[in-house]
Design a protein that fits this description.
CATH architecture of the largest domain: 3-Layer(aba) Sandwich
Shape: elongated
Structural class: alpha/beta
Enzyme class: oxidoreductase
Largest sheet: 8 strands, mixed
CATH class of the largest domain: Alpha Beta
Number of strands: 8
Order of helices and strands: EHEHEHEHEHEEHEHHHHHH
Distance between the termini: 38 Å
CATH topology of the largest domain: Rossmann fold
Bound molecules: NADP nicotinamide-adenine-dinucleotide phosphate
Radius of gyration: 21 Å
Subcellular location: Cytoplasm
Function: Catalyzes the reduction of 1-pyrroline-5-carboxylate (PCA) to L-proline.
Number of domains: 2
Strand content: 5-15%
EC number: 1.5.1.2
Oligomer: single chain
Main location: cytoplasm
């Protein structure tokens, strides 16, 4: 079994460590790096995984997962570059950073796989899209797929589509949170207690997501099934259309994609 080191054990890094352990990896096959000794000690106590420094991670790991904030990447790559073994696979979870950045700063031939995960990774329900760099093979992609399947679903996309993925599933959970928040407010407007309104909406969201995932039916079919003639749902749908909710979603996601492109240039 290969040794995996997570560089930067923040929210996403910790979620990955936890998922890998749940998925059956042994604590001895995992490592992490962390700037704050108290945080490192806390993680070791919680998961039994050793906190190491970057040189140690580079020496021991077969797979290095970079999970620092994008703005912290330069010192990490500068430290890694002289230490990296040629066969080490580098997996980037950093939003917006292209594989070409790693390829420029790391030794020639380093295999790099770029991942766009999302926050439901903390509950084992991430949606991760992966793209190979110039030197990553199908075998490298399979390794990353296996690794990320411990914390959710994985899809392969060409790197050119990563800005669209960022806008769709990277930011996606926020759109659902926004929608749920608005629907809970609607319940309060109708006179329901907040806790009841929350329960009604969160369970409805869970149920709807499960139906979409498990029935394989198109969303239109599922919606039509609850939209009876002259009923309540069609009245609500008319208002959603009148207020341009569909067009707003298209424009919002396009704006997120444009911002991702802009940040990538930076
Ligand atoms: N959260 C999301 O929704 C999400 C979604 C998709 C992708 N991502 C990507 O996942 C990455 C991590 O995000 P996050 O939300 O987990 O951020 P985070 O909680 O800030 O975690 C990053 C961790 O890396 C540590 N770090 C920074 N430089 C380091 C270094 N040189 N050596 C060791 N550790 C270092 C940070 O320490 P300090 O606390 O000292 O800074 C922090 O603990 C980001 O690149 C982000 O773009 C996040």
């Amino acid at each position: 079994m290969s040794v995996i080191a997570v560089l930067g054990a923040g929210k996403i890094g910790e979620a990955l460590l936890s998922g890998l352990l749940h998925g059956g990896r042994k604590p001895g096959d995992l490592l992490f790096t962390e700037r704050h000794p108290e945080r490192a000690a806390e993680l070791t106590a919680r998961y039994g995984v050793a906190g190491v420094d970057v040189p140690d991670a580079a020496r021991r790991a077969d797979v290095l997962v970079v999970a620092v904030k994008p703005q912290d990447i330069d010192p990490v790559l500068a430290e890694l570059a002289p230490l990296l073994r040629p066969e080490t696979l580098v997996v980037s979870l950093c939003a917006g950073l292209p594989t070409s950045l790693y390829e420029r700063k790391l030794p020639e031939g380093t295999p790099v796989v770029r991942v766009m995960p999302n926050t439901p990774m903390v509950v084992g329900e991430a949606m991760s899209a992966i793209s190979p760099g110039r030197h990553a093979t199908g075998e490298h992609l399979a390794v990353v797929e296996e690794l990320l399947s411990c914390v959710g679903a994985v899809v392969r996309v060409p790197e050119a589509q990563q800005d669209a993925v960022t806008a769709l599933s990277g930011s996606g959970p926020a759109y659902f949170f926004f929608l749920v928040e608005a629907m809970i407010d609607a319940g309060i407007l109708l006179g329901l207690p907040r806790n009841v309104s929350e329960q009604l909406i969160i369970q409805s969201a869970k149920g709807a997501a499960k139906m979409l995932a498990e029935t394989g039916e198109h969303p239109v079919t599922l919606r039509e099934a609850v939209t009876s003639p002259a009923g309540t749902t069609i009245n609500a749908i008319r208002e959603l259309e009148k207020h341009g909710v569909r067009a707003a979603l298209l424009a919002a996601i396009e704006a997120a994609r444009d911002r991702s492109v802009e940040l990538g240039k930076g």
